[in-house]
Amino acid sequence: MAAGKRCRGFLIPGFLEIDMRYDDIHAARFIRRVNRFVAEVEIGGAVERVHVKNTGRCAELLVPGYAVWLEKSGNANRRTAWDLIGVEKPVPGGGTRYVNMDSMAPNRAAGEWLAAGGLGPLDNLRPEVTVGDSRFDFVAEQGGRPVAIEVKGCTLERGGVALFPDAPTLRGLKHVRGLTRLAGEGWRCVLLVVIQMKGVDVFMPNRATQPAFGEALVEARTAGVEIVAMDCLARPGEVAIDRAVRVEI
After folding, report:
1. Can you give the pTM of this predicted structure?
2. How much of the chain, in percent, has pLDDT values that exceed 90?
């Protein structure tokens, strides 16, 4: 797919019509994180509690004083009227890098990209399918061969290096090992890392945080699992998979 190309108006079973754009967005200033799901921000001169759409650690993103972006919730019955969807992270030398923090965005952007031919033509593309003891984000067929695709969203960046995970993940480890097993059974298996920003040069496993995840990636690639990292055209109003990023494991 051409860089930045968008594909709209199609459906994947299990999803609504895919369109990774946000409506009714507003800038705010981050104050503090109350818990995994709730933060306090300053917007329009008032302090508001907002829903954090990422339960990861995100310690380098959710910093007091950082500019954040919110989307107005369409649910009038919710306790929080806003969703925190992104942050402006300062970069060395001045300026900021926008990082999408919506944990639902990677899968939806991946669905859009896959349906548009990102991994080549796929038949019978379906989300959230259980194979054996693992549930994968997407399963499809390609030339009669079964395909399993697991998506991981990446928001952690240090010095132009995208790192995953930002905290130990037993679930992620199980998914990688599940892909390794299916690759040994003849499936085409892809670990798709969606880097929710621009400006990164390389993707690497975060061995300092979870050495076992890095070792699992080495075993997976040896078994034939494709590890694909893609950056995103990430802006406050939208996010879309854009270009491949070098993978070093």
Report:
1. 0.90
2. 82
